[in-house]
Design brief:
This protein has 306 residues and is α/β, with parallel strands linked by helices. The chain is 42% helix and 21% strand.
Length: 306
């Protein structure tokens, strides 16, 4: 079956309307079709507007329609394309690895601002940890933006670290070999007591924080994204609490912690951080004005509970 490009784009767009998780069917259609044609979505959007009559070969159309069915089933577009954009950069992702969310960029922005005001020009190497790194998007972004930082990507999932290593390799091709000397991966269960006391100047944490019994969770998240990276016991708070304790031990005094959590968990996170002794505990609100992250400083004196 040979189809004209413009007709195929309309078909894909129409079939994406109302599909699970699809917010902008026109743009997703351009991303999906562009992936199989190896063209940018903006180029395809222009072709659609101009009514392109370009004919596509049958095997190409078949591949696109197969990808369309995967998306209509609820499979995240990032898994189909094999990548996700984060902080204006492209990161490899694959099934079994948590997909970076745009809300996490807000935590990265705050971390970069703090790091630039403290690490830039420093003769000391600043050690940063990305807890629950998944694809490595957060930690790699910090390493690219702040040259004074040495970043450790930590996860308890070997699959996640494989994808992180792939992303590290991709960025090393652009950033140079010195980049490889400033970033590494570490397989570790963060629910266990920390092994490194006062090692990091900054920690960014994205623990599993969703209650498995939460009826508001989108069904495609349950079906396709890794359960261990999304859900936690104790009403979703078990890993948040454990990772805060881990960070408290592992941070240097005066070190900065930023943690992502559920939009209803902010008061509990703030209370727990203050109980542990963190100072200047401050919320960060997402694009919809939900309390999505909390940041704080480990005190320089001996008031923290370590």
């Amino acid at each position: 079956m040979v189809m004209q490009l413009n007709h195929l784009l309309r078909t894909v767009t129409d079939h994406l309307r109302g599909a699970p998780g699809v917010i902008n069917p026109n743009w997703e259609a351009c991303l999906l079709v562009g992936f199989y044609l190896q063209r940018g979505p903006s180029q395809l959007l222009l072709s659609s507007m101009l009514g392109s009559r370009e004919e596509l070969q049958e095997h190409v159309c078949q591949s696109i329609l197969e990808g369309l069915e995967r998306r209509r089933s609820g499979e995240p577009l990032a898994y189909i394309l094999g990548y996700k954009e984060f902080y204006s950069r492209v990161f490899h992702v694959s099934p079994g690895v948590f997909i970076p969310r745009p809300e996490s960029e807000l935590l990265v922005e705050r971390a970069i601002h703090w790091c630039r005001s403290h690490a830039t020009g420093s003769t000391e190497v600043w050690n940063v940890a990305d807890l629950g790194c998944g694809s490595g998007a957060i930690g790699i972004t910090i390493a690219v933006e702040i040259k004074e930082c040495s970043v450790t990507l930590i996860d308890n999932c070997p699959k996640a670290l494989e994808v992180s290593l792939r992303n590290i390799s991709s960025f090393a091709n652009r950033e140079g070999k010195a980049f490889l000397n400033r970033i590494k991966c570490l397989l570790m269960d963060l629910n266990q007591p920390a092994r490194f006391a006062e090692q990091y100047h900054m920690i960014l944490a994205n623990p599993p924080y969703v209650d498995d019994a939460d009826p508001s969770v989108d069904p495609w998240v349950r079906q396709f994204e890794p359960h261990h990276a999304v859900f936690a016991t104790d009403s979703g708070f078990f890993c948040v609490r454990k990772w805060l304790e881990w960070a408290l031990i592992s941070l240097k005094r005066g070190g900065w912690l930023g943690i992502e959590h559920g939009c209803q968990q902010g008061p509990m996170v703030k209370c727990e951080m203050e109980r542990l002794g963190f100072m200047d505990v401050t919320p960060i609100y997402d694009y919809h004005n939900f309390w999505r992250h909390t940041v704080g400083i480990k005190p320089n004196h001996g008031n923290s509970m370590i």
